[in-house]
Write a structure and sequence with these properties.
Rossmann fold; about 180 residues; globular
Length: about 180
């Protein structure tokens, strides 16, 4: 009898559908991926709903589970209070990454999932080391393993663009928060 190796579960923080396409594809051979759409930073609510609809579309196409905790922008606004004027890739982004990755780590623990990671590193517009640091800190704080994948490598971002076109996905023109508009 041929016993196949069981896949390790990982909770994948998903910021948007286009970024999740290539990331899911890369993780799937080794991991059982559960998506986590935690994005209270997205503004306005109509944009949040549009991005969520697109994520739900790829979940059906790629066939993986999705957890959506709900939209609570006031929690994110409180976290970044005083950082509204910060430039992109600055302190506000660092707090945002930490906010979302801590939520992902806590959710993974509550679901009994040993690993977590994020689609955020596929973007060439974000500081990967800042994301890795936020993930490592959340992992240390909650005693869980953060998978440090720089998904933009090996043409990851380019591949996400190709998959997005193939799937006819909405591709947003800004990070998501009101201050990046």
């Amino acid at each position: 009898m041929n016993k196949s190796k069981a896949k390790l579960k990982t909770l994948l923080h998903i910021c948007c559908a286009p970024d999740a396409t290539a990331v899911f594809e890369r993780l799937k051979p080794e991991y059982e991926v559960i998506g986590f759409f935690h994005n209270p930073n997205i503004f306005p609510e109509a944009e949040y709903k549009k991005r969520l609809e697109q994520v739900e579309l790829i979940v059906r196409k790629l066939k993986f589970e999705l957890v959506v905790p709900g939209y609570a922008p006031e929690e994110w606004e409180n976290a970044v209070k005083g950082l509204e004027a910060e430039p992109e890739k600055g302190k506000r982004c660092d707090v945002c990454f930490r906010f979302n990755l801590e939520a992902t780590a806590k959710k993974a623990i509550s679901m009994g999932i040993p690993f977590f990671t994020t689609t955020l590193t596929i973007s060439p517009h974000k500081k990967t080391e800042m994301i890795f640091k936020a993930g490592r800190d959340a992992a240390l704080k909650y005693s869980i393993k953060f998978l440090e994948f720089d998904f933009k490598k090996k043409d990851g971002f380019k591949h996400s663009l190709e998959l997005s076109r193939e799937m006819n996905l909405y591709r947003q023109s800004y990070c998501g928060c009101r201050y990046s508009m």
